[in-house]
Amino acid sequence: MNKKNLTIMLVAVICAPVLFSSCATIVTRSTYPVHINSNPQGANISIVDKHGREVYTGITPTSVKMKASAGFFSRAEYLVKFSKAGYADKTVFIDADIDGWYFGNILIGGLIGMLIIDPATGAMWKIDTEYLNETLVKTETSSDRELKIIDLADVPDHLKQHLVKIN
Question: What sign results for the dihedral spanned by CA atoms 85, 76, 123, 108?
Fold first, then answer.
């Protein structure tokens, strides 16, 4: 092999990873763990993606791996619904944002990384939410109320004006 061919091959070997790679795909990931908890624990959770598909059901505490991409050039969006008997339902929104490393393609990955590889792998997006720790609000039920019969003498004076006489 002559010196000219060796130089061309060496340049090709050095340039190939740069030309056929992308910055965000190399540096980051496309799925992110989200740790989900509730107070009180033991709440049912349901996670629905932006297409209305249920992607997870379980009970808190749990950890769920969530995809940052919902398709080519499409960021993921999720609704996490908490429910537990005796507590009001609660819904939390999680979405992916553009990953700063995606713009590294301008310097390193080039157009192939920016227009094909990172959008296809989902690495152009990131989910910043690492922890969801939601407090559920107790709802009043009819069993929480009770009827008490007390002597009129035991009623405080400031409340006596609100009493209604029943015959």
Answer: negative
CB 127 within 8 A of CB 32: yes
Q: In angstroms, rounded to a whole number, what is the distance separating the alpha carbons of residues 118 and 125?
A: 9
Q: Does a structural domain hold residue 67?
A: yes
Q: What is the DSSP string of 139-156?
A: PP-GGG-------GGGS-
pTM of the complete model beyond 0.70: no
Q: Is residue 51 part of a domain?
A: yes
pLDDT at 78 over 90: yes
Question: Is there a domain that residue 154 lies in?
Answer: no
Residue 21 corresponds to which tokens in the numbers above?
Answer: 């790679």
Confirm whether 151 is domain-assigned: no
Give dist(CA 35, CA 45) in Å, integer.
12
